[in-house]
Amino acid sequence: MREFLKTKGFKMTPQREIIFRAFFEIGDHVTVDELYRRVRKSDNSVGYSTVWRNLKLICRVGLAEEVNLGDGVTRYDRVTREPHGHFYCVQCKQVTEFEMEEIVAKLHPIADKQLFHVDTIKCEISGVCETCQKKTDDDDDTPLVS
Amino acid sequence: MREFLKTKGFKMTPQREIIFRAFFEIGDHVTVDELYRRVRKSDNSVGYSTVWRNLKLICRVGLAEEVNLGDGVTRYDRVTREPHGHFYCVQCKQVTEFEMEEIVAKLHPIADKQLFHVDTIKCEISGVCETCQKKTDDDDDTPLVS
DNA sequence: CGGCTAAATGAAATCGAATTTCAATTTCAA
DNA sequence: TTGAAATTGAAATTCGATTTCATTTAGCCG
């Protein structure tokens, strides 16, 4: 990793070491705050902005990407995996994934047709997860569109 | 519209009249600020928060939905149309659409399989639009990867 | 037509995540 | 070892989103 960063003009530091390690351990849909807490367990002197900057750095070097589920908090995903979309439960805020190979394959021709140069493709499905569906079978939340 | 709102327990006001009208005229991917400016042309005494609240209201009654393209600004789309995804040009910030009927049809079974109750489906493709591609053929922006 | 209550408004204040500033520290190539 | 450039931590700032609050208004009821 030190070498990889060097080739891109960045230095390795103890804090960065911890942050990178933590990020790749936690895995996906992490928020800055979550990662910050996690990092503090290893070294409680690491600053919030350092965690933030390094998360941005991980994105810049192409190892992660920002995920926006519309709840005002930015999450971060590793990009070292298959293309995938997200299920976002509006009740428990839990994020799960689904494989998106086929969807992506369908989307590319659409972009090509409009001569749009694609950087990233995102699919987000919001709704209620199985667990929360069961939980809210009774206590209904005054539906506006009855 | 007055009647429609009444059935949902809301009143009609001059400001609301203007805001609703403006929203459905402008059409899509409007930001609060854009709509606010537009509304002020009809009546420069309308407040920003009123525009914001009414945009939220339009969403609540199911006539619009929030669109999040990851640039920190919330946009609003009418929902009275075919399901569609968005192209977002990271250079000129322009938003265009693409038809998504078929994609949605493929996505639903995926959600069903995980027993996820779907509220909304969003597909966002970020990249560079045709116009901006031509514009930036020369002045390259120091690519980090490569 | 008044009177009344809930809803709506506008301005200003607040919130909160994201981002920047700045002085001090650290990395690492020469 | 040394110096330039990168990095860090804390605090400040930014900026869109949202709330507060005093005032006004819509629309139902008699």
Number of domains of chain A: 2
Instruction: For the record, give the distance between the C-alpha atoms at the N and C termini of chain A, rounded to a whole number.
Output: 55 Å
Q: Find the count of extended strands of chain A (DSSP E, 2+ residues).
A: 6
For this entry, what is the oligomeric state of its chains? homodimer
Low-confidence stretches of chain A: 140-146
Quick one: biggest sheet of chain A?
Answer: 3 strands, antiparallel
Rg over CA atoms of chain A: 19 Å
| Spatial ordering of strands, largest sheet of chain A | 1-3-2
Largest protein interface, residues of each chain: A-B, 40 and 40 residues
Strand content of chain A: 15-25%
Name given to the CATH homologous superfamily of the largest domain in chain A: Winged helix-like DNA-binding domain superfamily/Winged helix DNA-binding domain
CATH class of the largest domain in chain A: Mainly Alpha
Q: Which shape of chain A, going by the Cα principal axes?
A: flat
Structure annotation, total helices of chain A:
6
The assigned CATH architecture of the largest domain in chain A is: Orthogonal Bundle
| Structural class computed from helices and strand pairing of chain A | alpha+beta
Q: State the helicity of chain A in percent bands.
A: 40-55%
**Average residue pLDDT of chain A:** 89
SSE string of chain A: HHEHHEEEEHEH
What is the CATH fold-level name of the largest domain in chain A? Answer: Arc Repressor Mutant, subunit A
